[in-house]
Design a protein that fits this description.
By secondary structure, the chain is mostly beta strands. It contains 1 helix and 10 strands. The strands form 2 sheets. Strands 1, 4, 5, 6, 8 and 9 form a 6-stranded antiparallel β-sheet that branches.
């Protein structure tokens, strides 16, 4: 796992916990490479019966598997105007996070859960931004 040393977890106004930075991060910087535990589609039903339901990703080129993202990867909160994005690496089984703009110290790092920084997809949870 690769992660910038300035990242930390703290309570978030967006809900629950979030990922923040203690120092500024320039645009286009790789901030984390999160390993992914890949599970077969048949295990998704078991995940839905647990708290992991809110934290797993659809995984694979055909999105027929599910992935449990380790590191801080499952703790980045959603925003429709995010300051970061994630890029799946299906061959390496990692989810890689990059900044979309400069991020200031103390600022929460957010991603768009649709996988597209400009996506407007609706989700099963209430979005506060």
């Amino acid at each position: 796992m690769q992660v910038l040393p300035s990242l930390y977890i703290a309570p978030s106004e967006l809900g629950g916990k979030g990922v923040f930075t203690a120092s500024s991060i320039d645009e286009g910087v790789l901030i984390e490479v999160s390993p992914v535990l890949v599970l077969p589609k048949k295990d998704t039903v078991h995940i839905h019966a647990t708290r992991l339901h809110d934290y797993y990703f659809l995984w694979g080129e055909d999105q027929k598997q599910c992935g449990i993202v380790l590191g801080y990867g499952s703790l980045y909160n959603h925003a429709y105007q995010p300051n970061a994005e994630y890029r799946p690496d299906f061959k390496g089984d990692t989810l890689d996070f990059y900044t979309l703009r400069e991020i200031q110290p103390g600022e929460e790092i957010t991603v768009n859960y649709s996988g597209d920084p400009e996506g407007k997809q609706r989700f099963w949870f209430r979005v506060n931004n």
